[in-house]
Amino acid sequence: MTGERLDGRFARLWTAATMSALGSGLATVAAPLYVASRTDDPLVVSAGAAVSWLPWLLFALPGGVLADRVDRRWLMIGIDWARVAVLGVLAVALLTGRAGIALLYAVLFVVNAGEVVFRVAAQALVPAVVPRSRLERANGWLSGGTQVTQNLVAGPLGGFLFLVAAAVPFAVDAGTYATPADRVAPAPVG
């Protein structure tokens, strides 16, 4: 039935996925702005795009294999806390003036590698939290939410936060992952 509502388990999964996408989008937008403020070498600035998208090439398939072999919920929680840690290091380095472009690119790579695996795990978790009759609707909401937040909301927001201070978009990014994943990523239905 097309009018059926999605329940709280799916809402928590959707929230986790869209917050994750927002955070990754903020980092992907703020990183080149930071690099461009530090250097005028176009090769160094454009390397940020490569660092942002390389994890999708390297980890999409292995991430799917991993998500099929471990508890997806705990995988998502672990990924979020790892991203909180690396973004915390970056935010402190930015605030203290010790952040270099290499550190920024390393953090960006880890954040986006986490996003690849997180997104695969979230997508694979959908059938465990949504009845078969609602899968199409749930997949549409999940895909739409991540695309809108990462590609439409994160760009302007990341640029604005960067204008406030270079560390702010990365700190907010860490906050999007620190939203307790164990509260937003639902346990599968038993």
Query: How many runs of DSSP E, i.e. beta strands?
Result: 0
Query: How many helical elements?
Result: 7
Give the fraction of residues assigned to helices. Answer: over 70%
Low-confidence stretches: none
The main pleated sheet reads as: none
SSE string, helices as H and strands as E = HHHHHHH
**How many angstroms separate the termini?**
23 Å
- Helix/strand-derived category reads mainly alpha
Strand portion: under 5%
The outline comes out as elongated
**How would you name the oligomeric state of the polypeptide chains in this document?**
single chain
Gyration radius, in Å: 17 Å
Mean pLDDT: 88
In short:
With 190 residues, the protein is an all-alpha fold. It has helices spanning 8-38, 42-69, 72-95, 101-129, 135-164, 168-178, 181-184.
